[in-house]
Amino acid sequence: MSRVESDGCRETGLRLDPKWDAAGLVTAVVSDAVSGELLMVAHMNADALAATLATGEAHFWSRSRGELWHKGATSGHVQRIVEMRIDCDQDALWLKVEPAGPACHTGERSCFFRAVTSDGLVRG
Q1: For Mg(2+), which residues are the binding ones (predicted)?
Q2: What are the C-alpha distances in Å from 47 to residues 26, 60, 70, 117?
Q3: Cα(29)–Cα(95) distance, rounded to whole angstroms?
Q4: DSSP string covering 57-98
Q5: Radius of gyration of the chain (CA)
Q6: Is 9 annotated among the ligand-binding residues?
Q7: Can you give the pTM of this predicted structure?
Q8: Is the pLDDT of residue 14 over 70?
Q9: Does CATH place domain 25-123 in 2.40.50.140?
Q10: Is the separation of the CB atoms in 109 and 39 below 8 Å?
Q11: 29-59 confidence digits (pLDDT tens)
């Protein structure tokens, strides 16, 4: 039996069944729903995913603080979910959001505000 046949529900089915990593997390890629700009990458555990689905706003698991994190709870820069997708293995999420401000804790619109070149990092 092929992998797809033996794991068809997760890989081709329509039932949400995230494949959590050893730490109980999935990667969440966040982009602007209108412009398509990549804003940030974070992680979700089951509680963060449930809170995101329940509220329509992005919630993540903070690996550094070891706690659930509602994006924008303190800054006001919430991310309203426009669409959420999961990849074929169900081990990564893509959140298309309407951001209420910068995504990056540095104040930059995107966490990806620097380009990597052979000479190092440049704003770009």
Answers
A1: 87, 89, 91
A2: 12, 8, 11, 38
A3: 6
A4: B-EEEETTTTEEEETTTTTS--EEEEEEEE-TTSSEEEEEEE
A5: 16
A6: no
A7: 0.87
A8: yes
A9: no
A10: yes
A11: 999 999 999 999 999 999 999 999 999 999 9
Does 17 appear as a known binding residue? Answer: no
**CA separation, residue 59 to residues 10, 55, 114 (Å):** 23, 9, 25
CB 54 within 8 A of CB 117: no
Q: Flag whether 88 is marked binding.
A: yes
Is 119 labelled a binding residue?
no
Q: CA distances (Å), 81 to each of 5, 12, 58, 61, in order?
A: 32, 24, 7, 17
Residue 7 in marked binding region = no
Residue at 84: amino acid letter: M
What span, in angstroms and rounded, lies between the C-alpha atoms of 47 and 69?
A: 10
d(CA 52, CA 26): 13
The tokens describing 60, both together, are 């993540």
The helix (run of H) or strand (run of E) holding residue 18 is none
